[in-house]
Write a structure and sequence with these properties.
Layout (H helix, E strand, L loop, with lengths): L1 E2 L1 H10 L7 E4 L2 H11 L4 E5 L12 E4 L2 H11 L3 E2 L9 E2 L3 E5 L3 E12 L4 E7 L6 H7 L4 E5 L8 H11 L4 H20 L2 E12 L4 E3 L3 E4 L8 H4 L9 H8 L3 E4 L4 E5 L2 H13 L6 E4 L6 H11 L7 E8 L4 H14 L6 E7 L2 H11 L4 E3 L3 H12 L4
Parallel strand pairs: 15-17, 17-18, 18-19
Antiparallel strand pairs: 1-13, 2-7, 3-4, 3-7, 5-6, 8-9, 8-11, 9-10, 11-12, 11-13, 14-16
Helix pairs in contact: 2-3, 5-6, 10-11, 11-12
Length: 391
């Protein structure tokens, strides 16, 4: 689950992570009132969507008068903001964050993420703040500092020293402030079961203070039961409606941009299925794990969600029956054909528990566009061929 920048900064404030003052606004008039309340003579009007790159997309602008703040808020609220993280369809901006101006002397990058290879959280930092960090990683990877932190000992002084030395911070007072900042941010990450915290840019002011000028946070969905305060921040308008619907039925679904719909049980097998489709020169249209408790209803719902994607030209059902029985999946496929217009070829590979019974169910059903497959490679090849109209 992701949250907005203004919400991330509310969480930061709980832990004493310094941020500029700001107020959320849903209308241009509210934006003016927010600027008046903040005071000063310069404000930043920021679009609030779950995506980075807002500034480059025209979603972050500077207002130098109350009239200009109103004009900018009117321009941004209601716009479809397209960034490198939204995809070409963009996202609708429904609110803006009005923030006080800041004295920016330098811009840095700071994040805490999970390093799956090290199986530990890692603090990443760079002097290239305000830039697309993926571009920095690709073109100048030496400018990214990585500090692995073992959760059993948490953030220690030597982690902080490695961080500030890597960033080239030589002033003793600034070193102390930066280490304190990173320590608090790491505590936020651990306490809130975050998957990712990113600040880009983290600014250094003329006075040598560090402020989170931006803030992105993503959380482990499985841990939200421990954090009702975080779950209350959920903005479902920012989430994919098909993914939300799938979750209600216990399905793990992620939309992709290919042509072959995938229905698999188990995340590992799902990834392997997608890789095999790619190897066979096909493109997966989605990740869909029906899990170990799949039944006819959930399988039918899976078909319904997959077929909402107009780009799907074939579906590959790849089930290895362990916890879930293959005959359940077969009955689910039959149910789907009754409830949903399954207008594309469906390649089915069922193996494991009750596979012979499942094969018999599908055979007796005599469904024209269901194509049996013997194994993963055979199924992937047939799915790719079906998507091309060759079966």
């Amino acid at each position: 689950m992701n949250i907005h920048e203004y919400q991330a900064k509310q969480v930061f404030a709980e832990y004493g992570v310094p941020t500029p003052r700001g107020i959320i606004a849903n209308t241009p008039d509210e934006a003016v009132k927010a600027a008046e309340q903040l005071g000063g003579n310069i404000w930043v009007v920021k679009a609030q969507i779950h995506a980075g790159g807002r500034g480059l997309g025209g979603g972050v602008k500077l207002g130098k008068s109350l009239e200009e703040v109103k004009e900018l808020a009117n321009e941004i609220i209601g716009m479809t903001l397209v960034t490198h993280q939204t995809g070409p369809e963009g996202k609708l901006v429904q609110k803006v964050y009005i923030e006080e101006g800041a004295d920016i002397k330098d811009e840095l990058y700071l994040s805490v993420v999970l390093d799956r290879a090290a199986e530990m959280p890692i603090i990443m930092a760079s002097t290239e703040g305000g830039m697309d960090i993926e571009t920095v990683a690709e073109k100048t990877p030496e400018k990214i500092i990585k500090v692995t932190v073992d959760p059993s000992i948490s953030f220690q002084g030597f982690h902080g020293r490695e961080l500030v030395f890597g960033l080239g911070i030589t002033d003793k007072n600034e070193q102390k402030k930066m280490i304190d900042f990173a320590s608090k941010l790491f505590k936020v990450y651990m306490d809130k079961d975050a998957e990712m915290i990113e600040i880009n840019p983290l600014i250094k002011t003329g006075a040598g203070d560090f402020l989170a000028l931006d803030g992105k946070m993503g959380f482990d969905d499985s841990a939200l039961g421990r954090h009702p305060d975080i779950e209350a921040m959920r903005d479902i308008s920012e989430e994919d409606p098909d993914e939300r619907e799938a979750a209600q039925y216990g399905l793990s679904y992620i939309a992709l941009d290919g042509e072959i719909g995938c229905m698999v049980n188990g995340a590992g097998l799902a990834m392997g299925t997608m890789d095999t489709i790619n190897y066979m020169s096909g493109t997966p249209a989605n990740f869909l794990d029906v899990g170990g408790s799949a039944n006819a209803e959930t399988v039918a719902k899976g078909f319904e969600i997959i077929l909402k994607n107009p780009n799907v030209k074939a579906i590959f059902v790849n089930i290895f029956g362990g916890i879930v029985r293959c005959d359940r999946i077969a009955n689910g496929i039959l149910e789907a054909t009754k409830l949903v217009d399954v207008h594309v070829p469906v390649v089915v590979r069922l193996d494991g528990t009750n596979a012979p019974e499942a094969a018999e169910i599908l055979k007796n059903a005599n469904i024209a566009n269901v194509i049996p497959a013997t194994d993963l490679a055979d199924g992937a090849a047939k799915a790719v061929a079906a998507a091309k109209g060759e079966l």
